[in-house]
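ERR on first pass: missing label on line 2. Operator R.T. fixed the label and resubmitted. Corrected input:
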Amino acid sequence: MIGGLFIYNHKGEVLISRVYRDDIGRNAVDAFRVNVIHARQQVRSPVTNIARTSFFHVKRSNIWLAAVTKQNVNAAMVFEFLYKMCDVMTAYFGKISEENIKNNFVLIYELLDEILDFGYPQNSETGALKTFITQTGIKSQSKEEQSQITSQVTGQIGWRREGIKYRRNELFLDVLESVNLLMSPQGQVLSAHVSGRVVMKSYLSGMPECKFGMNDKIVIDKQGKGGASEEAAAGKSDLGGSGGGGGKQSIAIDDCTFHQCVRLSKFDAERSISFIPPDGECELMRYRTTKDIILPFRVIPLVREVGRTKLEVKVVIKSNFKPSLLAQKIEVRIPTPLNTSGVQVICMKGKAKYKASENAIVWKIKRMAGMKESQISAEIELLPTNDKKKWARPPISMNFEVPFAPSGLKVRYLKVFEPKLNYSDHDVIKWVRYIGRSGIYETRC
Amino acid sequence: MTDSKYFTTTKKGEIFELKAELNSDKKEKKKEAVKKVIASMTVGKDVSALFPDVVNCMQTDNLELKKLVYLYLMNYAKSQPDMAIMAVNTFVKDCEDPNPLIRALAVRTMGCIRVDKITEYLCEPLRKCLKDEDPYVRKTAAVCVAKLHDINAQLVEDQGFLDTLKDLISDSNPMVVANAVAALSEIAESHPNSNLLDLNPQSINKLLTALNECTEWGQIFILDCLANYTPRDDRESQSICERVTPRLSHANSAVVLSAVKVLMKFMEMLPKDLDYYGTLLKKLAPPLVTLLSAEPELQYVALRNINLIVQKRPEILKHEMKVFFVKYNDPIYVKLEKLDIMIRLASQANIAQVLAELKEYATEVDVDFVRKAVRAIGRCAIKVEQSAERCVSTLLDLIQTKVNYVVQEAIVVIKDIFRKYPNKYESVIATLCENLDSLDEPEARAAMIWIVGEYAERIDNADELLESFLEGFHDESTQVQLQLLTAIVKLFLKKPTETQELVQQVLSLATQDSDNPDLRDRGYIYWRLLSTDPVAAKEVVLAEKPLISEETDLIEPTLLEELICHIGTLASVYHKPPSAFVEGSRGVMHKRLPARTGSGEGTECPDVGNAAGGSAPEAAPSIIPSQGDLLGDLLNLDLAPPTTTGPTPSTSGMQMGGMDLLGGGLESLLGGDIGGSPAMGAGFGAAPAVMPASLNAPVGGGLGDLFDLGGGVGMPMGAYIPPKTVWLPAMKAKGLEISGTFARRAGVIQMELVLTNKAMSVMTDFAIQFNRNSFGLAPAGPLQVLTPLGPNQTIEVSLPLSTVGPVMKMDPLNNLQVAVKNNIDVFYFSCQYPISMLFVEDGKMERQVFLATWKDIPNDNESQFQIQDCHLNSASNKLQGSNIFTIAKRTVEGQDMLYMSIKLSNGIWVLAELKVQAGNPNYTVILNESKYISSLRFFQ
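pass 2 clean. output:
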């Protein structure tokens, strides 16, 4: 198991050091600094073995977090834990920076004592932790409160406490998708996938049982066979959604993972998503689709080398969704060679600028409706070099935001049942929003 | 509130100031002072001088302050054990506190204070906390048992905490169950045979129920524990799989990987024609792909594991090639791993896509990545024949870029393509020759020279080209020199008329002006061949070459099986067994996949990798193949007609060794050893020793060998030397194969090694090192390999050993972990030495002393076992050759009794009584040890 945990600043000075196991000595702190942070060559693996001691590290801005062990630990768990620790720290004091860590070092030690025992990760749900690690002392708790805390920390529903009350029961669902594309210069899709998240913000009283439904192909097909009765019931509470491209009925989900509140065995057996949500915000589900993706934009590059000192670049972008919808924050990044000496740009729409420090032409368009087309052309002048190596044309990348889900996913319903309190599904105010963003959206040129 | 100010104070006299503040009456000031102390501690300053003052602050109802003081205590208690006692009272009191959070805090902290005196006081509070009404306290106490066990294992056993911990597995709270499982798994690891985690269908059911309810971390503990279980049959295996599969949808990647591990392992037991088997295979792919959208560090862990899974079960991901395409912004470690997997998945169906990608990668910036991409193109050509042509043309395109390292890498792989598809792509040679000047790496130069020599008849100016290399002959690396020598000889055999001068020149350079014996020897051989029989020379030098294999860099099957059992862990990231990077005995146990039920293979094959955790009930007592068994096997086989095939390949590593011996090393076995070692002769005379099944300690086996010797008649004196076995197969060590044995010659223990270079490049700079071991064996001098070891060369080395090295108990006792280094890498292997090697020459005990000692030894130290089928007529003489001395002989009731003494190099005496029943070839051996060493499991 994890033998120790260190946090360093960019210079390699220790900010936090907590040792859990006897086999980790003080010299481990220095070993990591010398061999990884100060290494002459950039370390090429997140796992380093130095003198039979293994170091796992992640970096957040310029802060290094390192976990140390001498045993054959579960490596995936160690990294998951390090990310989790970052989440917890962010939830407590915001951005992970040297200053914040120094300001909160007592709190961090307290957290580390709680979420890692003898190197074994313990409950690290921020919701639960915040009930008893507060930095204000907890003398005032009554006995009842104490046992409530401990039963929440260890309980089956560790992410939610009892007795929550809201005057207005409300929930917000965000379907956030990032669409990833790699396209060849000839317009052939090399790989494309959507990785999506359903984020739920709930303000519900009591311990509500929720059931979430979407246009999952497997469910829809099953229902098609089984009769339309449930379909009708579901239709009543249909939250609708402003779909983007085609009017697809259902989508094929390659794989999905759920927040720990979702009953996985139920999903496995019936493919129904039921849970008691944590209070406030949580990421209910992550999913991935690869079939029938609506690619919101198409990039058509044209690069021509004119002699050894000049490049002509023309890039056309086409939007490919309903004309009534508007894409926002569009940015096209056209890489330029390292020996660029000057650039002239002409674009029909938006603004384009050559950024020498980034070796790229950045073309920004604020808004663009569907089924439109726009174009940029640039002349790049190059300094003559005697470098034999050809320029390794990096791909043209794109950023954007569209108000629909490129995977075609639609929320069909989210039903809320709270048997003990007197509010019903109809009393809950529900909101759904779809946002599609670009992930790694690249076209080779 | 900003606490960062505490980090800044560095002025002198700080300790005194702090002392004053700590003793201040004001609570706030006290707290501030403790914070400063902790800050100093963090940055590495020694603040242990403040121990009494800080401990004084412990009695407080301020929880924050209390936690800080505890943190300080955990750090410094060890250096101030006497002072730490002061804290005990508070701990004991806190363990009774009405607030469960404080009770848990106290028991958690107490376990982290590694002071013997404190642990004594810990027992009572811990016992209470293990039965506390609050689950939070119980789950903390469960982990505390593991902490205590780490400090004082005996105490934990004596106090009966292990039983309490086992009870917690049935606790109503899932988190308590999870922590109890984690603690028990850890304790079980250091007691391989304790059967502590007594996994049976009932307890498995409990774990599976808890699995649905506990936190993500708890699920990992439980899944990792489940992976150690061996189901009784395929039906149980399937039902566990069915209950584990929902975990594949968990958001936590570690839960997913641990579930994959359980499924991969239990799948082994399912019959392949089962519908469920196919369903399961299909279910595994999507979660593995999803892991690739995690953070880069996790992607790396996932990719390393996928690399293993793809080798074990290629069918799972065969349609998922696209997800392994490299993204421009991937970190380099992710890129390199993805590339590896792409090559493994390349097939005729997707080769076009793969090639297009690889070509793209070859223009990237990172040198390592580009090289690997170029090499990958070559590997595709060799793997998928239909794509070879396209690959070659892609490589030619790349050569045209004139980027130095791309060209060199391309030439190296084109050489392999030529070998795989002879007489097909030689038209490209002209292009290759154009780049001759730009090659500066030995591997590329050697490859190019090989090509020129191999196709000398089609290259008009081959002689000129080779001559140009010859100018700087002495500056070249050995690899290039050897290749150049061979190439010119080939050229001469093909075009004898024009190149006579050239060949003479190279032969004289190689034989007269070179210090390198390999080069010299090869030169002489060619010279002799050419001068005596040019036809024979042609047959030898221009002989048809064996085909090269399609897959490269495959992990050796036994290792792969073991690594599959370690999915998700560090071992799977390093692609090394845990023993290679974990110190001591913890977690070094070999794991292996369960055998398919019904086939019966599982019980037959010798069982080296003992079932994990000792928890899996073995159907039959396992027999560790000692040298004797192996010898028996070999002899058996050897007596049979030569057409018999070897034993069916099995999963065991040792068996593989046996196979190797049979194949390659047969002549050394029969030729070398019959003459050299009398032991072998004896083995031939007698029937192969059959070990009683109960004798599963290798030591016993070794002893059996000794008795086995007795069977021969009129044997010359001399200690028993086991035949050489392969310790390190070439596949695992980048072409270096090591086999060897141990011998005792003239009172000195010798490790006799045979190093064989099966790689293409020369190996130099050999060195050897041992891990600490039970008898303190250590090399007495450096490994004497003075000359570089050329490709396909073999060298025998004898390494004298001393017994004065550091000692650590190994399991099995005679296990020796060895590291061998050469210019390529460091390789690790472990081997077992016959215990008889440690018997020293002055092991003859006086009769009186013997009698006295025999009586003094408590019965606990006595053990008995039987040896069958040995003809022990003049045994004592033979045994004396192995330093086992007969003290006395008497006859009681028709039984001959022999009394013998042995002294081990570490001074331990072993006394033995040998009962020989007349007419019955069975012998009973009673062993007595003069020192209590049963913990060493000397004789079972």
